[in-house]
Amino acid sequence: MARIAGVNIPTNKRVIIALQYIHGIGPKFAKEIVEQVNIAPERRVNELSDAEVLKIREVIDAGYTVEGDLRRQTSMNIKRLMDLACYRGLRHRRGLPVRGQRTHTNARTRKGPAKAIAGKKK
């Protein structure tokens, strides 16, 4: 099992698909990485040599923000918005939708399960 950026990537999948198990690498970046390392897209992880896995690891470390660093960067961006007390920061702080979605009927994912209101029944 190959370990790249602190993640055990599955061995029986194609390289492009397996790289997407790393947080911060999607289809576009996975394809870019495979092209930079000159690996055929249809090859599987268990067919890669140690040198190729090392090359992939070096390319990711050099040019991409992934896993812990990316999560830390995202949380710091949200914390910065909350400290500024801008509209988006207040929405994050209150646990409400940030990007203008309606909240009258929907937004159950952000607001949590519906709470019963006493005295509402007719």
TrEMBL record:
The keyword Methyltransferase does not apply. Located at the top of the head of the 30S subunit, it contacts several helices of the 16S rRNA. In the 70S ribosome it contacts the 23S rRNA (bridge B1a) and protein L5 of the 50S subunit (bridge B1b), connecting the 2 subunits; these bridges are implicated in subunit movement. Contacts the tRNAs in the A and P-sites. Part of the 30S ribosomal subunit. Forms a loose heterodimer with protein S19. Forms two bridges to the 50S subunit in the 70S ribosome. It comes from Cohaesibacter marisflavi. GO terms for molecular function: rRNA binding; structural constituent of ribosome; tRNA binding. Residues 96-122 are annotated as: Disordered. SUPFAM superfamilies: S13-like H2TH domain. Gene3D superfamilies: 1.10.8.50, 30s ribosomal protein s13, domain 2. This is Small ribosomal subunit protein uS13. The gene is rpsM. Coiled coil: none annotated. GO terms for biological process: translation. One of its GO terms (cellular component) is cytosol. The lineage of its organism: Bacteria, Pseudomonadati, Pseudomonadota, Alphaproteobacteria, Hyphomicrobiales. InterPro entries: Rbsml_uS13_C (IPR027437), Ribosomal_uS13 (IPR001892), Ribosomal_uS13-like_H2TH (IPR010979), Ribosomal_uS13_bac-type (IPR019980), Ribosomal_uS13_CS (IPR018269). Keywords: Ribonucleoprotein, Ribosomal protein, RNA-binding, rRNA-binding, tRNA-binding. Belongs to the universal ribosomal protein uS13 family.
